[in-house]
Design goal:
The complex is a heterodimer of chains A (about 425) and B (about 325).
Chain A: H1 4-33, E1 37-44, E2 50-58, E3 64-67, H2 69-77, E4 82-87, E5 93-102, E6 107-112, E7 134-139, E8 147-156, E9 165-167, E10 179-181, E11 187-191, E12 200-204, H3 205-214, H4 223-244, E13 249-252, E14 255-258, E15 265-271, E16 281-289, E17 293-296, E18 299-301, E19 304-312, H5 318-329, E20 347-354, E21 360-369, E22 377-385, E23 391-402, H6 404-416, E24 419-420
Helix pairs in contact in A: 4-6
Chain B: E1 3-8, E2 14-20, E3 24-28, E4 35-36, E5 47-51, E6 57-61, E7 68-70, E8 73-75, E9 77-80, E10 86-88, E11 91-97, H1 110-118, H2 121-141, H3 149-176, H4 183-210, H5 214-240, H6 245-269, E12 295-296, H7 297-317
Helix pairs in contact in B: 2-3, 2-4, 3-4, 3-5, 4-5, 5-6
């Protein structure tokens, strides 16, 4: 029969062993894996200055390495103005070429040139670890040499369209592109940028394996075409999932509006009901996809956002009330990228509509074209109901990087989802 | 035989006028002259004037210090008529026979009559009240925050100040040109144009709410505002100055041409003329004013497809 004292000693011994095991393992990571880790730099050919730095890791004996798309995006978008350079843990610099990339999941494969290639490389895991197990994020942030950030694997992010992995370590931006290894020392994910303290996301295993298995090198002239194809396919899936099932309804003021349109859309709301000085009541509800797709420093895309605002007033007469509605409608919400080089100007049209639920509204719809990515557009819709003299529902949606077919599928569903209670 | 001597201003307006029933006369600074000129650059007995039997007028320089000019040419003697400008010192004259033929009588322009009718005080007060009411209505319905009487008074005051500027300037210029200021007329012109532009803007709002011909409607509004301004400016000039139509048209053209250039030229030279924000403005006003028939969802979505074509074309052009 073991007494309490014995249990305590036994338990603390186990604890010591396991923590020292973890410490040993972390130490092993430093010694064993620093050779597979590289610092990736994009160098501007003219000035010789680096424009981006990040991390990457070798996955086979021939110098094939993984990093993030956004670490090498300057090269992908302007391949004639930039080059990719890598630096190993000993400071040796080599050139690298781009093999393939996945802009949706922020991954890229590069081929490191050079004769003295390492025999050491990081194997890819065959499956994700069990929930709660320790995982280690490796990277080369800010020229500080290699660092290891341990964290806990919490499973795939619930309700995420892009299926990123939850990670509780703090991943900072220099570690982007570095590997996440499991307790067996295999890569099961890739670090992606930073999402604040102690809550990071990582690109999971299956996306990495899918890219590697494509086993294809993209021609330099086809980079933009490839980005466009990947975006097209992604938005097709996204919009198809959004329009597949009937949207749930929720009341807002005197109207019924769509609630979260899919489980990967999150909504939140607010109102000004506690403002005593207010001339009108405003109740707001915003729904959006949790992430956007990074294309370049000045362009994001893939946004799905919908806003509903209920306004009513007994202090304003009908004329003044609709004046206020007009001003509210003009407030812009999102602008994911806007420059003459990347986009056309917005083309708009306006009309008075009556939807299938006999809700009358005045609407405006605006479209702009992506110059570099064929067949992709940003669509902005805004409308206000006209049925009541002192109350109105203002609805908006903003979809960036969609095709004309997606517009045709999504817009009528949105417009016909609004009804009076 | 009578001689008429007219003293002229720099731009040939008649300042004073004297008829002498003499066959010969003197003109100079001396008080004993038949025509006394109070100009220090004129000699005591500067000029001799004589009429011969045929009625022709001759002038003769009397050895003066600064000489005599006829139509800006220095002469010692000359024959002059009503078309010649005689400069003596810093004074300008016309000298002609009293029985010279006069210009034919001008027929009164019917416009003169309308303008006269327009220059009534009751119009002035009526228009002023109308403009005040419109400003009040606009400032009340144009805002939706708490209605402050002080800000209304401020905007009415500001409006009145702006209304006063143009009429006072024109009136002043009129007086300087020895004409009546005709302030009431000038005010009425400005007030009528402001009231019209105000009322027209409400019509535009109504059209923009109901119909999707935004570019066309906005162009009509611009045209109307400019047209109104041009007409009022032209009439203000007409009332203020005696000018030939050609001269007046030239002034109006120059002023508005310059304004138009100032507005349009920067647009031509601005190569970076790229409008980032969408003009998603849906022009909403109270649904009481809704007269157009609503479209169905499907029709709206279908007609929206044209925007994709336009956006692509526009980016191909840029």
């Amino acid at each position: 029969m073991l007494g309490l004292k014995q249990y305590c000693i036994f338990f603390s011994l186990i604890l010591c062993v396991s923590t020292s095991h973890a410490a040993d393992f972390a130490e092993n990571l430093y010694t064993g894996y620093k050779e597979v880790l590289y610092q990736i730099k994009i160098i501007d050919n003219e000035s010789g200055q680096k424009s981006t730095i990040g991390s990457g890791f070798i996955i086979n004996g021939q110098g094939l390495a993984v990093t993030n798309y956004h670490v090498v995006s300057d090269f992908i978008l302007y391949p004639d103005k930039n080059r990719i350079e890598v630096e190993d843990i000993d400071g040796k610099v080599s050139q690298a070429s781009l093999v393939n990339f996945d802009v949706i999941n922020d991954l890229a494969l590069i081929q490191i040139q050079g004769d003295a290639l390492r025999s050491k490389y990081l194997p890819i895991a065959t499956q994700l670890p069990t929930q709660g197990s320790t995982i280690y994020s490796l990277g080369n942030p800010h020229d500080l040499g290699m660092i290891v950030v341990p964290g806990t694997y919490n499973g795939l992010k619930q309700n995420s369209f892009y299926q990123k992995i939850h990670f509780t370590g703090s991943v900072n931006s220099g570690m982007s592109g570095g590997p996440v290894v499991n307790e067996s020392g295999e890569a099961m994910g890739v670090n992606v940028a930073t999402a604040g303290n102690q809550l990071g996301f990582l690109v999971p295993l299956n996306k990495l394996k899918a890219l590697i298995n494509k086993n294809k090198t993209i021609e330099i002239g086809d980079y933009k075409k490839t980005i466009a194809e990947q975006l097209q396919q992604n938005q097709r899936q996204l919009i198809a999932q959004l329009t597949a099932v009937q949207w749930p309804k929720t009341p807002l003021g005197m109207a019924d509006v769509p609630d979260a349109m899919a489980d990967f859309i999150t909504c939140w709301g607010g109102s000004n009901a506690d403002d005593k000085e207010a001339q009108y009541l405003a109740v707001r509800k915003s729904c959006s996809l949790d992430q956007t797709i990074y294309i370049s420093r000045r362009m994001q895309t893939g946004r799905v956002a919908a806003n509903f605002e209920w306004y009513s007033s007994d202090k304003l007469n009908g004329f003044r009330f609709y004046n206020m509605i007009d001003k509210q409608m003009r407030m812009m919400t999102y602008q994911d990228g806007s420059s003459k080089e990347d986009f056309s100007e917005y083309q708009c049209q306006r009309d008075v509509i009556e939807n299938v639920n006999n809700v009358k509204f005045k609407s405006a719809i605006c479209v702009k074209n992506y110059k570099e990515f064929v067949g992709l557009f940003d669509v902005l819709f805004v409308s206000a109901t006209l049925d009541k003299s002192n109350a109105s529902l203002v609805s908006r949606f903003y979809l960036s990087g969609i095709s004309q077919a997606s517009y045709k599928a999504f817009t009528p569903v949105f417009m016909d989802a609004i009804s009076w209670q | 035989m009578a001689v008429v001597i007219e003293l002229l201003s720099r731009n040939n307006q008649v300042l004073s006028h004297q008829v002498l029933s003499l066959s010969s006369a003197t003109l100079g600074r001396a008080f004993s002259c038949d025509k006394h000129i109070d100009d220090p650059y004129v000699c005591a007995q500067h000029l001799n004037i004589s009429i011969d039997e045929l009625g022709a007028i001759n002038i003769q320089d009397n050895d003066s210090v600064n000489g005599v000019r006829v139509n800006d040419k220095v002469v010692s003697e000359a024959q002059v008529n009503a078309d010649d400008i005689i400069t003596v010192g810093r004074s300008r004259f016309r000298i002609f026979a009293a029985d010279s033929s006069l210009a034919p009588t001008k027929k009164l322009n019917p416009m003169e009559e309308y303008i006269d009718r327009f220059a009534k005080r009751r119009f002035f007060f009526g228009l002023l009240i109308a403009l005040t009411i419109l400003t009040t209505v606009d400032s009340y319905f144009g805002t939706f925050s708490k209605f402050e009487v002080s800000s209304l008074i401020a905007s009415i005051g500001g409006m009145l100040l702006v209304v006063c500027i143009v009429p006072f300037i024109f009136g002043l210029l009129s007086i300087l040109n020895k004409k009546d200021a005709r302030l009431i007329t000038q005010f009425n012109l400005v007030l009528v144009s402001l009231v019209s532009v105000f009322l027209f803007s409400y019509l535009i709002k109504f059209l923009l709410f109901n119909f999707d011909k935004t570019n066309l409607i906005v162009s009509v509004e611009t045209l109307f505002t400019w047209g109104c301004s041009i007409v009022v400016f032209w009439l203000a000039l007409y009332v203020a100055f005696h000018q030939s139509n050609r001269k007046r048209n030239a002034i109006v053209f120059a002023v508005f041409g310059a304004l138009a250039c100032a507005k349009l030229l920067p647009g031509f030279f601005d190569e970076n003329n790229y409008i980032e924000n969408p003009n998603a403005n849906a022009f909403i006003i109270s649904p009481i004013f809704l007269i157009s028939k609503p479209e169905s969802t499907q029709d709206f979505v279908s007609s929206g497809e044209a925007l994709f074509v336009k956006a692509k074309q526009e980016s191909d052009d840029l």
